[in-house]
Design goal:
- This protein has 2 domains: 167 residues, Beta-Lactamase (2-Layer Sandwich), CATH 3.30.450.40; 60 residues, Winged helix-like DNA-binding domain superfamily/Winged helix DNA-binding domain (Arc Repressor Mutant, subunit A), CATH 1.10.10.
- It is an alpha+beta fold.
- The relative contact order is 0.10.
- The longest helix is centred in the last third of the chain and has 55 residues.
- α1 packs antiparallel against α2 and α1 runs parallel beside α6.
- It is built from 8 helices and 5 strands, in the order ααββααβαββααα.
- It has a 5-stranded antiparallel beta sheet with strand order 2-1-5-4-3, sandwiched between helices.
- 55% of the residues lie in helices and 14% in strands.
- The radius of gyration is 30 Å and the shape is elongated.
Length: 247
Amino acid sequence: MDGEQLTDAFVELADTMVADFDVIDFLHLLTQRSAQLLDASAAGVLLADPRGQLRLVAASTEAVRVLELFQLQNDQGPCLDCFRTGQPVTAPDLTAARQTWPQFAAAARQAGFGAVHALPMRLRSQVIGALNLFRDTPGTFGREDLRIGQALADVATIGLLQERSTRRSEVLHEQLQGALNSRVIIEQAKGKLAERLGLNMDQAFTLLRGYARDRNRRLSELAQDVIYGTPADFPGLTAPAPSPRAD
């Protein structure tokens, strides 16, 4: 195994903090590097969607792509078992694996594969998918290959989860900034209403909020219109009648 190529592969898989990060391209890179560096003829990746359902996202060859889809369609195969248990699953001889996965084993042999090893894409208790390594001929995968294969899967998993966390943080930041911006606009609208109608700020906010609710409008959008509109634009947005005084 080329040590320089291996180092480059880990560097590539760790680099997810880029503006144009592409998950599909990233996982395709994982399958390519796994097939190049390990004693594997091809590789595929299944990844869980937000509902926890596995989806094919990358394959190093068309034969693997078709086989992975077959695995998903028939709900049977090593990658599914690996994802469900969070543990590696190996089949050094797919002919002998027909008792375990009769349909998958037959399809894999027909596609020209003799052995498969599935590695979990897992960080602690969170399993997000599985990496499948295929060999043309039966036989066990070497211990060193499996160790490196799992390390590649682990680095890719950490990169994906880090990217997801960053994206969620950015969304949360945007939502928070949006809320702060909306609050400023609402305060401005309250001030304008208070001055226009002779109300205090609490009364102005109550009036603004009630008007928005009655017309099923977002409060921030109404506030924006109040700031730049005229009283004629808002029929009914007037000061409440004073309460009658008790004699």
